[in-house]
Specification:
262 residues, alpha/beta, Nucleotidyltransferase, domain 5, six-stranded mixed sheet, two-stranded antiparallel sheet, 8 strands, globular
């Protein structure tokens, strides 16, 4: 059985003036990403990631989370003032220099690229090209990204020897019910390219802090987001060997779907 771990980067909002900024919310691009691995390879891969964290002296209870690594900060509530303020997180304390944290992110991407049993799928939604006259256009980024991800996962399974799969997403408590509704809608209003599902028609949830592979897809999703939202391909370029390819060896249209087409 294959497992698809899912994460997203960016946001699904739209600015009132339709002017997007590359470094501020709402983001121009919304990315939904998938990491596929067979359950037979799960333990071996999980051990490789655990060994990587050990080599970097990253404690087991510290997540490999892209934005936390890059920023090196977290928000806490001051016990006296009750106001929110930023303090250094574990990465900010151990890697105070920004370049050192960026190097750690690159090493994470190189790690993913080195694991041949991993396959990546990226769905990039360009919100600036969505027709705002369409009723319910604000729901399009989430809905279409699920549809295209499911479509490509199904195509992957269709070509695999073991054609059975499940889907696991990060268990963010306040988003679980909404994510399940979005997934179910994508299932029942399926793409014309999906004739038969090869995966269990439900989604499972797991906290990212307990899943090394959810942390890996978070890193990969951030790398893709940086490339297409901020024109920074330094992380994405480290992942190219793991992105699903067509029979002709092409990434675009296979493991990378950009919608709407530029």
């Amino acid at each position: 059985m294959h497992i698809l771990y899912v994460d997203e980067s960016g946001d699904d909002g739209f600015p009132e003036d339709n002017l997007f900024s590359p470094d501020n919310a709402p983001s121009c691009k919304f990315v939904r990403s998938g990491l596929i691995i067979h359950d037979w390879k799960w333990k071996k891969t999980n051990d490789i990631i655990a060994d990587f964290k050990f080599s970097k002296r990253i404690p087991k209870d510290v997540e490999l989370h892209a934005t936390e690594i890059r920023r090196g900060k977290k928000k806490i509530t001051d016990s006296k003032t009750k106001k929110r303020r930023e303090v250094s997180n574990w990465y900010g304390q151990q890697f105070p220099e920004t370049e050192d944290r960026l190097n750690l992110l690159r090493d994470c991407c190189k790690l993913i690229n080195s694991i041949a049993d991993i396959t990546l799928i990226f769905i990039v939604i360009d919100k600036s090209l969505i027709d705002k006259t369409i009723a319910g256009y604000k729901n399009i980024p989430k809905a279409n990204s699920w549809e295209y991800l499911i479509e490509r996962y199904n195509l992957y399974l269709n070509k695999a020897k073991d054609q059975v799969g499940i889907i696991i997403s990060d268990a963010i408590e306040h988003k679980i019910e909404k994510t399940h509704r979005e997934f179910a809608k994508a299932i029942y209003t399926q793409s014309s390219h999906v004739k038969e599902f090869h995966f269990i028609e439900s989604i499972l949830f797991e906290p990212s802090e307990s899943s090394e592979l959810l942390q890996m897809v978070d890193i990969a999703s951030y790398a893709c987001f940086r490339k297409f939202n901020s024109n920074d391909s330094s992380l994405y370029d480290e992942l190219k060997e793991r992105i699903m390819k067509s029979s002709q060896g092409s990434i675009e249209g296979a493991g990378l779907k950009i919608w709407p087409s530029p």
